[in-house]
Here is the input.
Amino acid sequence: MQIQFLLAPATQFSRDQYEVTPGPSNLSALCLFLCSLGQRTITAEPGDTVTLPCRAPSSSEISYLEWDRPDLKSGYVFLYRSKRFHPDIQHPSFKERVELKDSQMKDGDLSVTLKNVTFNDTGTYKCYIFKEEVMLTQEEGSYGLVGLAVGLTVFVALFVSVIVFLKRWKPIQTSYQRAPEEPEPKVSNISV
Here is the structure.
């Protein structure tokens, strides 16, 4: 008897459904979407190992990868977040049976392999990805004058500080002269 895996078609989520508040670095959500390119059916025999394919549109860093089966009441098929796999919140029926096909996710390959498939694995599987992008923009010339003004101000402040320091701590030059010696009293030999 055969087991069938159904991969759901791609769907783009609207940004208002998953709101991301940009931080000071202009961090913005690039996309959150279902990854599979169309509905596909994968057929396997009990005990087989199957690959559930998922590919990101580009090779940029993936911050969140979730493989889910909508009929599961809790847990995930596979969850990768903060640069690591989270087996602690994986559905018990998938523990130690699911892993990334390519642990480095090179070239956007986010496929997972499911080992030792059973009839209970029959269902629809969805791959969700969240990618973040940092966008830094700088207008030409907008910081040149500010940088020059700050640099000159710092230079003048340092120069004045050095002059004040040298004047204040300049050693006081004194000349020491011997006081004129008093002439020794003349002792005269007076004979009496």
Remarks:
- The two ends are 157 Å apart (CA to CA).
- The first strand starts at residue 3 and ends at 7.
- Residues 3-134 form a domain with the Immunoglobulin-like fold (CATH 2.60.40.10).
- Residues 79 and 159 are 59 Å apart (CA to CA).
